Amino acid sequence: MSNVSRLCHAKSMVTVNGSFPGPTLYAREGDRVVVTVTNRAAHNVTIHWHGLKQRRNGWADGPAYVTQCPIRPGGSYVYDFNVTGQRGTLWWHAHIAWLRATVHGAIVVLPARGVPYPFPKPDAEAEIILGEWWHADVEAVEEQGRMLGMAPNTSDAHTINGKPGPLFPCSEKHTYALEVQWGRTYLLRIVNAAVNDELFFSIAGHIMTVVEIDATYTKPLTASTIHLSPGQTTNVLVRADRRPGRYFMAVKPFNDVPVPADNKTATAILQYAGVPASVLPAAPQLMPDANGTGFVAAFHDRLRSLNSARYPAAVPLAVDRHLLYTIGLNIDPCASCPNGSRLAASLNNITFVMPRVALLQAHYGGLRGVFAADFPDRPPARFNYTGAPLTAGLGTSPGTRLSRVAYNASVELVLQDTSLLSVESHPFHLHGYNFFVVGRGAGNFDPSRDPAKYNLVDPPERNTVGVPAGGWAAIRFRADNPGIWFLHCHLEVHTSWGLKMAFLVEDGDGPDESVVPPPKDLPEC
Fold first, then answer.
1. Judging by DSSP bridges, how do beta strands 177-180 and 266-272 pair with one another?
2. Neighbouring C-alpha atoms within 13 Å toward the C-beta of 428
3. CA-CA distance, 142 to 153, in Å (whole number)?
4. Where are the alpha helices (DSSP H) in 149-240?
5. What is the pLDDT of residues 174-231, one digit of tens each?
6. What angle do CA 385, 389, 393 make, to 5 degrees?
7. What is the domain-level CATH number for residue 459?
8. Closest CA to 240 of 185, 202, 299
9. Which helix (H) or strand (E) holds 209?
10. Is the C-alpha dihedral spanning 396, 397, 401, 405 positive or negative?
């Protein structure tokens, strides 16, 4: 626990090694990484290494009650994993309740020695972590929402590297500044570590060139503003070639539906060397409207995998398994809630119930009764998914249900938003895999027409995809990583309501096609 002050408010909160955000983890492609996590807080905790595939080694993945039991107060656990076939910017965060609001940091995986970037080498690099700040304890915020059966309170500010910037009170010590030398090029590794908000990011007077998303290289894409859903990362090149001065870096939320959100703008400063701090920063350039749906769709439609000889886009062209998962916001009965009901969320009308034994441990040990491997490939009923909002029949079926997938099967998953209660955008993260976003669109997915529009040549490769409000996203991946892998919304409020499930990917027949044995210090539930 650390005492931290922002916006003239001080509080005690969970941190890693006393810092907020936590320390950056640096590695090279091919490294073995060993991290000892000791829990000195009063909360149970786990750490997830977001975007690292953990090949055959789900024991190091981190989601509580999915691949491991939590690390109890006073306990320790050693995360031991290899960084194989990956390079770029990822991040780590707590993966239990809302602790990731304060327990998070960047992961920088450099290319193997002697391997250059597939873009001009930058003169310097910096990590830019976008987040949120609550005056209250985040666990208390979540608990209050749960007890009331309602959405929890929104954050009080956004942050850039843990600091809200000079547009907020008491900001003298709480503004991040990045000093640059005129004429040099900088690689900014940008992480959206926000708990619930999609974010726009821009730098006054400067153009960014996107060269990587979610630790996969892209064709260069120039933009004055970029968009990131929670969980996503973006690397951009920025050349310091403007008139020497001080320029605002700005972050503001994207929210295209009428639901409560923190609509405040956080700022940091791009500071040219030799310019006095007394110089007023250039104002943030005009960013898209908060409900800039068109901008967001156009930005993501322009993203393309690099698809070079060294970094090919290995898109599965034939599909063994077609899945359609509908995303719903629901209302379930709640005897203890003031109005007799609570908000819930579901995939295919199933609200996921977290077990009290880790799913991977139950699967590996043959423990029965913990889960059922019968998650449906399609919703229980067809309807006009994105038509007029539905206000009746909003209950769900609770259950701990997994989808069993054959080893090495090629999978296409269409994530379809619905108008149950309201349409809303949803970022989904798949553990253990990257996938290709082969298509996305507005309205209802049409299986007879939309696949003809897929990009099967150079689609963006990600680990977290944004499903547009009132729309759909189609992803493809090859199930070549055995184990149990979480799929969940990366808006923590919806995850806590049950918007999640897991895949059980079976072992293959080869010697390197099965889950490795668990470590001896695996925590017990």
1. parallel
2. 34
3. 8
4. none
5. 899 999 999 999 999 999 999 999 999 999 999 999 999 999 999 999 999 999 999 9
6. 80
7. 2.60.40.420
8. 185
9. strand 208-213
10. negative
| Whether 212 contacts 89, CB under 8 Å | yes
Tokens describing residue 429: 């993260």
Would you say residue 393 has pLDDT above 80?
no
Any domain includes 476:
yes
Please list, in sequence order, all residues whose beta carbon lies within 8 angstroms of the beta carbon of residue 173, skipping any fewer than 6 positions away: none
pLDDT value, residue 261: 80
- 3-class secondary-structure state, position 56: coil
The residue type found at 343 is L
What's the one-letter identity of residue 261?
A: A
CB 123 within 8 A of CB 181: yes
Is 438 in contact with 475 (CB distance < 8 Å)? yes
Give yes or no for a contact between 473 and 420, defined as CB atoms under 8 angstroms apart.
Answer: no
- HSE of 223, CA atoms in CB hemisphere, 13 A: 24
> CA dist 146 to 138, 352, 427, Å?
12, 16, 21
> Is the Cβ–Cβ distance between 151 and 493 less than 8 Å?
yes
Half-sphere exposure in the Cβ direction for 409 (13 Å, CA): 18
Dihedral of alpha carbons 134, 140, 145, 148, sign = negative
Pair 145, 5: CB distance under 8 Å: no
Helix (H, G, I), strand (E, B) or coil at 85: coil
**What is the helix (H) or strand (E) element at residue 37, kind and residue range?**
strand 32-38
d(CA 251, CA 492): 19
In what order do the strands lie in the sheet containing 216-223? 157-160, 124-133, 185-192, 233-239, 208-213, 216-223
Whether 368 is in a domain gets the answer yes
Unique residue bearing structure tokens 């730098």? 203
pLDDT in tens, 308-359: 999 999 999 999 999 999 999 999 999 999 989 999 999 999 999 999 999 9
Q: What proportions of the chain, in percent to the nearest 5, are helix, strand and coil? A: 10, 40, 50
Question: How many domains does one find in the chain?
Answer: 1
Residue 297 counted as domain residue: no
Q: Per DSSP, which regions of 317-378 are E strands? A: 321-333, 341-347, 350-352
Q: Is 151 inside any structural domain?
A: no
For 23-77, the pLDDT digits (tens) are 999 999 999 999 999 999 999 999 999 999 999 999 999 999 999 999 999 999 9
- Report residue 253 as tokens: 């939320």
Q: Choose among 14, 54, 20, 65: nearest CA to 37.
A: 14
Distance separating alpha carbons of residues 191 and 105, to the nearest angstrom: 9
Q: What is the pLDDT of residue 21?
A: 98
Distance CA 358, CA 356 (A): 7
Give residue 378's domain range: 321-505
| Residues 63-88: tens digit of each pLDDT | 999 999 999 999 999 999 999 999 99
